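2024-03-11 09:14:02 INFO queue: dequeued item General stress protein, len=157
2024-03-11 09:14:02 INFO validating residues
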Amino acid sequence: MTDLRETFWKRLEGINAGMLGTVDRLKLVPMSHYADPARDALWFIAAEGTDLVDQLRSGPVEAVHVIGDGGGKLWARIEGQLDLSQDRAKLDEIWNAVAAAWFEGGERDPDVRLLKLSLERAEVWTTTGGPGFLYQIAKARLTGEKPDLGEHFALTF
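2024-03-11 09:14:37 INFO prediction written
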């Protein structure tokens, strides 16, 4: 894994949600994601009958997941193929109290749907965040130099 990929996955660890949608409709909805660096994937727990799940009935579609988290010091537009998954082991692994709050029947509720976003590319901005940001702005004002607020890079998975 390259340093930039490591930076991406490391910063993603502290971020729990973003806005997910398919490229053809670009109707983004808030969704919690579960990172899977080993598979270059993000997983989502969704519900039967939602627009997003309905769009996946005929197979994978191009999707985008947008993350903006100053505390996590990561901003990203992540693109890939979104598909329904039957991976029960993965569902068992990522199931938690937040997901349980949405489904009366728990993990085996008939409306639970597991989605997998197989990552293809991402445009990423990392920041220094908080005090580092303020320092860079103050330094720029004093020196006249542009502030160093982080990196901007593209990844291919």
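2024-03-11 09:14:37 INFO annotate: DSSP finds five helices and eight strands in the chain.
2024-03-11 09:14:38 INFO item closed
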